[in-house]
Amino acid sequence: MQFALPPRRNLHAPYPNSSRLSFQRRRQLKAVAILGFTLLAVFFLLSQILYSSTGTSAVPAGTPSIVLVTVLDRALWSDNYIQKIIKNREDYAKRHGYTNFFANWSDYEPSLEGSPRSWGMVPAMRHAMASHPYSKYFFYLDTHALIMNPSQPLESHLLDKNRLESLIQKDVSVVPPDSIIKTFSHLQPEDIDLIITTDNEDMNPGSFVLKQGEFSRFLLDVWFDPLYRNYNFAKAETHALDHIVQWHPTVLSRLALVPQRIINAYSKESNGAGKDGSYKEGDFIIRFFGCDSDPKRNCEKELDPYYNLWAKKLKNE
């Protein structure tokens, strides 16, 4: 006697074949992976092309091209005096799309290791560059100085290629009046990373411009080396810079000396101005050089009449 077997149930009939589905998914995942890898590779190649063509990585939108660096001494100077300096710098930066880096001398005292506190300007510049890695130029300006011609952007006043070419002082003594080491006669604007002036005795780093890059990091590291800070130069970081520039052609080859009144005009009370280095109405900067080291002078009193002139210009605009 035979019994009819029940019909077999095809459990998979309503659904697609599992091996086929798995194969399709693998193909889709593989395609997505290839597409993702291709996009990453294209992005990487484009970033490398941009880097090789400009020498820097892509600059984020809104990055200021110029940073003004000022080191303040809140323990020594009155708040009123410091606020005047800050207002002067902030107005200038706002006009031209720059930014400010305000530091305190006390921030760098631990790293000075007993050296004169004036050395603090060097790590302050390095600090500013680390804080603004995509900005191109850093303009250090001593606390005891005012920007008197705020409508003048630094680009057209100093950094423009044609303008800088007209200002570079070639084949002149690095340390006046008669240093045997002279600036190179073949310098071109594209060679320059450090722009500074001299007075009647030295290069004076109370006002200078440094371009972001490997050279600037090298210079600041060398300048701040303990060997120089502990050498007891009579004028500390000023004489150290004189020495470095005269003995290191690498530095001299990236240096532009410009006329003093371009970025470092001395007030009438300041001794040591170079030839045609004293402030005249309309100049970009006035600097009260030495007002903080001469007991017969008072920085705040010397600054006030010029600050009032500057403030009057703002009201009349």
Description:
This protein is α/β, with parallel strands linked by helices and 317 residues long. Strands 2-1-3-6-5-7 form a 6-stranded mixed sheet, sandwiched between helices. It is globular, with a radius of gyration of 30 Å. It has one domain: Spore Coat Polysaccharide Biosynthesis Protein SpsA, Chain A (Alpha-Beta Complex), CATH 3.90.550. The protein is built from 12 helices and 8 strands. A hairpin with a 4-residue loop joins strand 5 and strand 6.
Mean of the pLDDT scores?
Answer: 88
- Kindly report how far apart the N and C termini lie: 117 Å
State the oligomer.
Answer: single chain
Low-confidence stretches: 1-16, 48-56
Portion of residues within helices:
40-55%
Element-by-element helix/strand order:
HEHEHHEEHHEEHHHHEHEH
Number of domains: 1
Query: Mind telling me which CATH architecture this is?
Result: Alpha-Beta Complex
Class computed from helices, strands and strand pairing: alpha/beta
Strand order of the largest sheet: 2-1-3-6-5-7
Fraction of residues in β-strands = 5-15%
CATH class: Alpha Beta
Main β sheet profile: 6 strands, mixed
Total number of beta strands: 8
Please state the CA-atom Rg, rounded to the nearest Å. 30 Å
Q: How many helices in DSSP terms?
A: 12
Q: Can you identify the CATH superfamily? A: Spore Coat Polysaccharide Biosynthesis Protein SpsA, Chain A
CATH topology name: Spore Coat Polysaccharide Biosynthesis Protein SpsA, Chain A
Shape: globular
Entry summary:
It comes from Aspergillus nanangensis. This protein has twelve helices and eight strands. The protein is of the alpha/beta class.
